[in-house]
Specification:
This protein is an all-alpha fold and about 100 residues long. The protein has one domain. The chain contains six helices and no strands. The longest helix has 21 residues. It is globular. The protein binds iron/sulfur cluster (SF4) (2 copies). One iron/sulfur cluster binds next to α2 and α6.
Length: about 100
């Protein structure tokens, strides 16, 4: 795993990404209608660890989220899951735009 120490800072330019309170309980994954094991808790863990490459490798999953907030309304830690997913999308869109400009 390659750690990018600036990844979280860069993520937060596009909004408030905050999953520090996540306890990795798995409630969100169990309730997600998409049934994607990765979404959202593992993705959030990768982001917190600065594993940018692994997050970007899950772009399709990030954009498949329905933003239905089923997970969020049952999160015992009060993590703003949908907002975090939106922030990840904003970051990815920014990266794609920057690549196109280069
Ligand atoms: S339900 Fe909340 S605390 Fe539990 S794993 Fe998901 S985001 Fe983390
Ligand atoms: S907001 Fe996204 S991650 Fe949460 S339950 Fe809905 S589809 Fe799944």
């Amino acid at each position: 795993m390659k750690v990018d120490p600036d990844f979280l800072t860069a993520l937060n330019l596009g909004g408030g990404f905050d999953a520090r309170m996540c306890m990795n309980c798995g409630t969100c994954t169990a309730l997600c209608p998409l049934g994607v094991e990765l979404l959202p808790r593992k993705l959030f863990r990768y982001a917190l660890l600065g594993d940018r490459d692994r997050v970007l490798g899950q772009t399709e999953t990030i954009f498949s989220c329905l933003l239905c907030r089923m997970c969020e309304s049952n999160c015992p830690a009060g993590v703003h899951i949908a907002e975090n997913v939106r922030t990840l999308r904003t970051y990815i869109n920014r990266e794609i735009h920057a690549l196109a400009e280069a």
